[in-house]
Amino acid sequence: MRDKQKRPEKISIYREVTELLKGKTFAFLMNFGGLTVSQISDLRKELAAKKLSFAVIKNSLIAKAAADIGWDDLSSLLAGPTGLVTGEGDVASVAKLVVDFVKKNDKASIKGAQIANKLLTADEVLKLSELVSLAAQQARLLGTLQAPASKMARVLQAKVDAAGAPAEVAQ
Predict the structure, then answer these.
(1) Looking at the structure, do residues 13 and 78 belong to the same domain, yes or no?
(2) What is the pLDDT of residues 66-78, one digit of tens each?
(3) What gap in Å lies between CA 101 and CA 38, rounded to an integer?
(4) Is residue 31 part of a domain?
(5) HEC string for the chain
(6) What percent of the chain has pLDDT over 90?
(7) Which residues pair with 31 in a beta bridge?
(8) Residue 95 and which of 24, 54, 142, 165 are 20 to 30 A apart at CA?
(9) pTM for this entry
């Protein structure tokens, strides 16, 4: 009879997948079937520039690792070839990047995402991609906060200009 113990290679791969998912705040699941190697390489380059990664992992390993780290049940998304875009940071900008890639490459599709311990459908990922990025929101807030101060400075400068040039100060 064959021993039911798992091979060390499988255990090592499982641990690697678990570590890949464990420290990440999001994972977008994509169907990449039909894409060429160069298309996937282009995606990897775009993601690497933002310190994100793309990995092709066996569905059963994704399901087991996700369950072990406390994510929602991903089984509804794990059919066919699955690629994972994982990382940390601004989720909306990554969703936009993934959606743009899928629009350019009609053979790819979005299956869903796991974000902050919540499972999102493909439609929810599309809606997420339409949000303004975190950097744009921060810039908008900064502009709003600076507006009153800059208006006050212009008013004070106008008063100084209207009063005329000050007399020379004696030393």
Answers:
(1) yes
(2) 888 888 788 888 8
(3) 13
(4) yes
(5) CCCCCCCHHHHHHHHHHHHHHHCCCEEEEEECCCCCHHHHHHHHHHHHHCCCEEEECCHHHHHHHHHHCCCCCCHHHCCCCCEEEEECCCHHHHHHHHHHHHHHCCCCEEEEEEECCEEEEHHHHHHHHCCCCHHHHHHHHHHHHHHHHHHHHHHHHHHHHHHCCCCCCCC
(6) 3
(7) 109
(8) 142
(9) 0.70
Q: How many residues does the chain have?
A: 171
Q: What token pair was written down for 145? A: 């906060």
Intervals of the chain under pLDDT 50: 1, 3, 169-171
Structure tokens at 22: 């464990």
159 and 89 both lie in a single domain: no
* Domain extent at residue 158: 133-163
> Which percentage of the chain shows pLDDT scores above 70?
89
**12 with 60: CB under 8 angstroms?**
no
| Residue 119 structure tokens | 């499972």
